[in-house]
Amino acid sequence: MALSTSTVPAATLPPTDTWVKATWEDFIATLDTPPYNEGQGYFDHGYMRIEMAPLGGGHARQNTLITQIVSLFGVLRNLRMAGFTNGSFYKAGERGCQPDAAFYIGPDFRLPPQDNAPIDVNVFGPPTLAIEIGGSSFKDDLGTKRLLYERLGVGEYWVVNVAEHQVLAFAVAEGGSRQIQVSGVLPGLEIALVEAALVRSQTEDDTALLRWLTESLGSGSQPEARDS
Question: What pLDDT digit, counting tens, does each position of 123-145 carry?
Fold first, then answer.
């Protein structure tokens, strides 16, 4: 998919971490302009939002851990999958997103090319699972971005509340979503196990965490879901 390489004039650079009215061309040009080319961009219904990477290691650690959990589950259950960290998924002219993590899951997906171009949803379909790991963006992850992912047509959407070690998971179908306690795209994975791993990550290293996860998933014993 050909993308514009023009840049946005300095006088019209948009604010970050908020939705602003924009055209698709504005969105593409902004993401080509420093420092926004270091951030994450979202576009839907004529509005765009640019988020810059958070400082500190906590967000990065939890991002890595969530990806490890999904990948480990896939290995143990022999699921075909392909994962993307901060990947770009575009339906040109309509909507675009850069989730913290995303996965294609299942026997039938077509593997996107391994290059720097955004993944064309019209060609490869939307990711099966999209994950946003929220700090200051948590409320927006549950609101406007959730609508974006519903319209994009992902199979499942997770929002991770970094401060509370909480995971809110939603099954997406027919343009809407509902909260779930057990994943459908990772059959049998209880969301409570993911939350328990986030709590453990505060005091345990990755080796200890992955050993515990392997034992928990292998034995079929998973924590009970917390009350919502």
Answer: 999 999 999 997 778 899 999 99
pLDDT (mean) for 158-187:
95
Q: Return d(Cα 176, Cα 147) in angstroms, integer.
A: 8
β partners of residue 49:
19, 42
Return the DSSP state at 216: H
Counted domains in the chain: 2
Which helix (DSSP H) or strand (DSSP E) does residue 104 occupy? Answer: strand 101-105
Model confidence over 82-95: pLDDT tens digits? 999 999 999 999 99
Residue closest to 145 by CA, chosen among 22, 3, 42, 8: 42
Cα dihedral across residues 32, 33, 34, 35: positive or negative: negative
Query: Would you say how long the chain is, in residues?
Result: 228
Coil, strand, or helix at residue 196?
helix
* Predicted model pTM: 0.89
Residues 2 and 103 in one domain: no
DSSP 53-78: PPSSSHHHHHHHHHHHHHHHHHHHTT
Do 179 and 156 form a contact (C-beta atoms < 8 A)?
no
Domain of 4, in residue numbers: 1-53
Same domain, 172 and 75: yes
